[in-house]
Amino acid sequence: MSTQRPSGQAEEPGPTDPRSAGIRVRHADVADLDQIFAIEVDVFESDAWSRDLMHHELVDKNCHYVVAVTDAPETIVGYGGVLAPSGSGDADIQTIATVPAARGRGVGRVIMNELLVAAREARAQRVFLEVRADNPIAMGLYRSLGFAEIGVREGYYQPDNVDAVIMRLDLGGQQ
Questions:
Q1: Residue 32 placed within a domain
Q2: Is 162 within a domain?
Q3: Could you report the per-residue pLDDT of 4-43, keeping only the tens digit for each?
Q4: Which domain holds residue 73?
Q5: Would the pLDDT of 144 be above 70?
Q6: Which of its termini does the chain have fewer beta carbons within 10 Å around, N or C?
Q7: Structural domains counted in the chain
Q8: What is the DSSP letter of 6?
């Protein structure tokens, strides 16, 4: 799918490892759509994806989506996806989001690391993402993972007219 997703609303890790706080990451599937979509609308508000588009992403064979969940009862507190067609050389972080209550606990970092593993498994050499220019916390997380700013798309996020910062991570020989 060629639709690009704002890669924002991620957070830098806090002092607590999410796994020690009863949060684990697993593969996402269509059964997770209701909870994912509820987070999507809550977090992204004016530029949230449609339910149909999110469904398409979850079933696309070139996409890998994960969810961060709490135990007993299992509740999704974050999700993320990467488009990584096998053999293309490039991967795109499509989206990542966490519920406000889970921010600052390293959930975004764990999700991103899982997405980067999927990109490597698809033999990607480069991983791209777009992030809202008004989201310095997400940009800090991405920089800490090795992403570098390579450009700006002016007014990319509508209707807010916010620029997108384009970032790239070169995986090179990190297969």
A1: yes
A2: yes
A3: 344 444 444 344 455 546 789 999 999 999 999 999 999 9
A4: 18-170
A5: yes
A6: C
A7: 1
A8: B
In a domain, 175, yes or no: no
Q: Tell me which H or E stretch contains 112.
A: helix 107-121
Q: Which residue bears the tokens 């020690």?
A: 20
- Token readout for 170 is 């070169």
Structure tokens belonging to residue 4: 């690009």
- DSSP helix/strand/coil, 10: coil
Q: pLDDT tens, 55-100?
A: 999 999 999 999 999 887 889 999 999 999 988 999 999 999 999 9
Task: For the chain, give the number of residues.
Answer: 175
Any idea what the CATH number is for the domain that residue 98 is in? 3.40.630.30
User: What residues contact residue 36 under an 8 Å CB cut-off, 6+ apart?
Assistant: 28, 54, 58, 67, 76, 79
Q: Which string of DSSP letters, residue by residue, matches 65-104?
A: EEEEEETTTTEEEEEEEEE--TTSSEEEEEEEEE-GGGTT
The pairs formed by 147-152 with CB atoms below 8 angstroms and a separation of 24 or more are none
Q: Is residue 128 part of a domain?
A: yes
HEC profile for 39-65? HHHHHHHHHCCCHHHHHHHHHCCCEEE
73: tokens are 């009862």
Q: Which residues have a catalytic role annotated?
A: 130, 142
Closest CA to 14 of 138, 144, 109, 117: 109
